[in-house]
């Protein structure tokens, strides 16, 4: 009987389931109180997949942008993403957008970004590292309290395929998830691979821990704080390339992004787009 209960529990969980400048690389209406969430992820061995036999070749997530259209991705990559609950794109049949921000260190703009999201009642996901969680606990608590997701960007921001020991790689993810759970009582449901580098093995390990891997269908060079080009540039860069189902990667250290964000949201909505949570991904 115990074996049957364990097997049933496992199936349910499975189904649910860079320099400082490089590091910075839900709820349609944020609430004042944090939503109920599932327990912190625990290590569960994959009985249906031999991780040791999976390819650990490093792939970098890079896309050729197309104006106001989703970038093309080879079918082989699409198959891999689907197999391991990984996303770069949402619902392409609807005018929906998914806002995500990478957070490796605080540059003084996240509070303003949260203000803009609150005022526009727009959800986002903030992908944080271990040092960010330790030094910016008030901001992280605010993200959670206002209904945003906080995603896992690993403790130390390594290229995940380079961490060859499975236990160490899991620790990079689970330690951050546990620390976030202890701080907020909420669970990290999404993972963004540092530097966009991944392998079949790392995607499988992420899925094993109950998280979905989130890439992106839009990004631009916004993380260099010494190379900001003004809010008009950021606004045009985003608006020229948004598309149905777009998962936007923005860096919260960018002054340009912060100053352009309110106009981006309002004008995207004027074009008929709505902003959804990553929890709404199909």
What does this protein look like?
The chain is an alpha/beta fold and 282 residues long. The protein is 39% helix and 12% strand. The strands form three sheets. Strands 3, 4, 5, 9 and 10 form a five-stranded parallel β-sheet that branches. The longest helix is centred in the middle third of the chain and has 19 residues, at 166-184. It starts with a helix and ends in a 7-residue tail after the last strand. The model is unreliable at 1-48 (pLDDT under 50).
For the residues shown, what is the average pLDDT? Answer: 87
Q: Could you tell me the radius of gyration in angstroms?
A: 18 Å
Give me the number of helical elements: 10
Instruction: Give the helix proportion (percent range).
Output: 25-40%
